Amino acid sequence: MAGRTDCQMPDVTLLGSENTDYLFEYSPSVLEAIDNLHTERDYFVKFNCPEFTSLCPKTNQPDFATLYLSFIPDKKLVESKSLKLYLFSFRNHGDFHEDVINIIVNDLIELLDPRYIELWGKFTPRGGLSIDPYVNYGKPGTKYEKMAEQRLLYHDLHPEPIDNR
């Protein structure tokens, strides 16, 4: 199989651009998708974002997190530079941790229509309390819906030691 050509990626406008705009307000329109060339099999794509920031909606204090995003694509993949710029757009966005995580998953479901997706936000403590919301989604009426239910029930059954916060 040969590599992709530019004409096979007409909707990819950010990757390779020398004029990157960093948007400081929530901007789901920056997300771009590319075709999944391997729809015949299930596989996970995982992104880790150790420098995610958003704002508390009440105090405007910054909230910092590591985000763990995993999904099983169907017909589309998220283009990674657009994902980076999208996550950066939360920098001045005020919302609670749980809301931010759900907003991101909702936007990615709309963009990708994945078979399965999950996002775990591990926020650093403020006031001695950390909040680690987890959300997932499996395409309704498929085995992925059942997978989402099982992963939600057992996602934190064996939590890792917390030694980095």
Can you put this structure into words, describing what you see?
The protein is of the alpha+beta class and 165 residues long. It is built from 3 helices and 6 strands. The strands form 2 sheets. The chain has a 4-stranded antiparallel beta sheet with strand order 2-3-5-6, with helices on both faces. Strands 1-4 form a two-stranded antiparallel sheet.
H and E order:
EEEEHHEEH
Number of strands: 6
User: What spatial form do the alpha-carbon principal axes imply?
Assistant: globular
How many DSSP H or I helices? 3
Radius of gyration: 17 Å
> Looking across the biggest beta sheet, what order are the strands in?
2-3-5-6
Biggest sheet layout: 4 strands, antiparallel
Helix content: 10-25%
Secondary-structure class: alpha+beta
Q: In whole angstroms, how far apart are the ends?
A: 44 Å
Q: Note poorly predicted spans.
A: none
Strand-residue proportion: 15-25%
Mean pLDDT: 89
Protein name: NADPH-dependent 7-cyano-7-deazaguanine reductase
Keywords: Cytoplasm, NADP, Oxidoreductase, Queuosine biosynthesis
Organism: Savagea faecisuis
EC number: 1.7.1.13
List the SSEs and their pairings.
Blueprint (H helix, E strand, L loop, with lengths): L32 E3 L9 E11 L6 E11 L3 E3 L1 H9 L8 H16 L3 E8 L10 E5 L4 H12 L11
Antiparallel strand pairs: 1-4, 2-3, 3-5, 5-6
